[in-house]
Amino acid sequence: RVNQRMCIGTSTKVDLKGADFGKVDDVYFAKNAAAKKGKKDEMFSKDSPKSEMSAEKKAGQKTMDDAIVKGLGADHKAYLKARFSLSSKMYPHELKF
Predict the structure, then answer these.
(1) Which of 16, 56, 75, 87 has its CA 20 to 30 A from that of 62?
(2) Torsion angle, CA of 69/3/88/9, rounded to 10 degrees?
(3) Ordered per-residue pLDDT tens for the chain, 97 residues
(4) Which residues, including other chains, have CB under 8 Å from residue 32's CB and lie 6 or more apart?
């Protein structure tokens, strides 16, 4: 999930028929409850454990991404890899992608 402030609406359509999103639900995006526990001093300690994605989530993300990438053309792949920024007097609602 992405915050709407970080998205720019486009008219681009991507074929998602080969992807299986059956395992993705709200629980998939939930954070570990143990990570929330702790005191302020522990928050800034250098040896605090970093939360990493499990191998199962990484493998699932890879399979979903591979199916999506197959539906993209070369120009779409280049577009997604490019860095995007707005300069003065560029308004997102006036841009056409």
Answers:
(1) 75
(2) 50
(3) 677 766 777 778 888 887 888 888 888 888 766 555 556 666 666 666 667 778 888 888 898 888 888 888 888 888 888 887 778 888 877 877 6
(4) 51
Nearby residues of 67 by Cβ (< 8 Å), 6 or more positions away: 16, 18, 19, 20
End-to-end CA distance of the chain: 21
The owner of tokens 């890899």 is: 81
Give pTM, 2 decimals. 0.54
